[in-house]
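Please predict the structure of the following assembly.
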Amino acid sequence: MAEATANGLGQHALHATHAQDAATTAVAHAEVHQEHPIKLYLVVWAWLFILSTCSYLVDYFGLHGYLRWSLILIFMMLKAGLIVAVFMHMAWERLAMMYAIILPPILVLVFVTMMVFEADYTLLTRISFFGPGP
Amino acid sequence: MAETTLTHTDQAPRPEGWQGIAADWASDQRAFKNVSWGKAMMWIFLLSDTFIFGCFLLSYMTARISTRVPWPNPSEVFALRIGGSEIPLILIAIMTFVLISSSGTMAMAVNFGYRRDRRKTAILMLLTAALGATFVGMQAFEWTKLITEGVRPWGNPWGAAQFGSSFFMITGFHGTHVTIGVIFLIIIARKVWRGDFDTGRPGFFTSRRGRYENVEIMGLYWHFVDLVWVFIFAFFYLW
């Protein structure tokens, strides 16, 4: 009797494991393996080199003012976009994943705005208490 | 019974676009449908790391805006004398190229990992680690150079005192990330080389079987380190 129960339990456990295995395979099937042609990586790699050279040349030629800042930001965003989209495979993920990861860092811009005002105010008080600077 | 339900849920076509976002996040289910937990958790770790580096760059911005003293010109500070002439920022440019090269080799390693090419994957990962170590070595050279020139966290010979503290904090933290990345690259490369992901050998720390996806998860971390450098390069060195 006891043996039979144990056997029954064993069978039950076996069945449970089997179901779990099947579930795991199903999930594994649903997970996408990122396999893309090597050429794509080489093209992106080349672009990263070109963009880095461009941003270095901005400094080398000593560009100034808004031209310099806008060029730096453009090259930076292009490089970051290429790395995240292709090298980190974000371009092939579902939107739910993309938004979960990419939206929160964009909200940091609110913090940036707050700190720009705060820093301007600090500079203002420093100038009015200590003079315009050495 | 459970089997049927699970299979059924997994094979039903999922809605796309905004409806897809709502449907994926709604109710008691896993939000990231076709992403394994390992990958999702690495992404969430990277998100938190983004905030850490975001805060560093923010504090640097605040310090630079609010100081009355002129900021030292990075173009001159990081110039090197090569062949009798000063070349601006050249060391940082070389470091950038080294890190981008390592990102490329890592992307290749991930690709060959999924093709089950153990040899190429391991070699490319070790190459990535070597480039990463080169980067850290150049950073050590840069630190030594600046320290001998008198840069300290509390002051420097050229201008605003906050330059030193921002520099050591930001590049130091980034260098730490690169170093940790190199160590883990070597560990994963060894596993690939030995065929752990083919034989299902349990890991020494987690006792769980690894998969070739581990190479991609490692790749996510490494590309993130490169990504952070893109921002540091733009805001700290070029601005």
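The mean pLDDT of chain A is 79. Chain A touches chain B through 68 residues (CB under 8 Å).
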